Amino acid sequence: MSYSISIIFIIFFTKICFAALGEETGLEIPRYISLKTDDANIRIGPSKNYPIILKFVQKNYPLKVIDEYRDWRKVEDFKNNIGWIHKSLVSGNRTGIILRSDNLDVKVFNTVHGKEIGKVAHGNIIKINKCKTNWCLISIKEYKGWVNKKNIWGVDYNELFKINLLQNFEDIYWKSVNYFNFLYQSKD
Q: Mind listing the pLDDT tens digit for each residue in 130-188?
């Protein structure tokens, strides 16, 4: 057990030590952010003197920071558009876009590998609450559920996000609940 914990700590601290950090913020690059406003200009360079190349009109739209210069962030969107945005127009809130290669709706589950509770349409912007190895807890308005991470642009495939120490116990509990519900329903 202690051997496994040691390996996990080594992997975690290796990732932190070798992560590229922004010169202005000291935060990891690349990283995901979102728009604060429904009117944001993307420019060719890091100044208002540079021409606007793109305008975003959707609040909470997710972006990936790929560079920093003073008060400006070089960002990329899910369509690979790249440009500079002023830091006052973005926040650290995590959002994502539901994407599937076949453009179909994505299933939402009550727990990881649990019961299907709904679907989210391709292209919807969602709030990312936390992410495990392959799954993220998302929300849209008052609705919450788990979605397979491969269907979200706005989180890296290997990224763990807001996972606490008790998460494994919570997962075991919900897996048991879903299993017993399945057995109970199959008897009917």
A: 998 899 999 999 999 999 999 999 999 888 888 776 766 776 776 777 777 777 777 66
For residue 127, the enclosing domain spans 97-175
- The 10s digit of each residue's pLDDT in 5-26 is 444 444 444 444 456 887 878 8
CATH of the domain at 119: 2.30.30.40
Closest CA to 127 of 32, 30, 42, 27: 32
At residue 42, the 3 state secondary structure works out as strand
- Residue 174 host element (H or E): helix 167-187
Is 185 a domain residue? Answer: no
pLDDT for position 13: 47
Sequence-distant (6+) residues with CB within 8 A of 23 are 68
Is the preceding omega at residue 30 within 30 degrees of 0, hence cis?
A: yes
Classify burial at 177, counting beta carbons within 10 Å of its beta carbon; exposed 0-12, middle 13-18, buried 19 or more: middle
Quick one: pLDDT at residue 171?
A: 67
Whole-angstrom Cα distance, residue 98 to residue 34?
Answer: 15
Same domain, 89 and 104: no
Instruction: Sort residue 141 into left (φ over 0), alpha (ψ -120 to 50) or beta.
Output: left
**Does 180 map to a domain?**
no
Amino acid identity, position 170 = E
CA angle 136, 177, 159 (to 5 degrees): 15
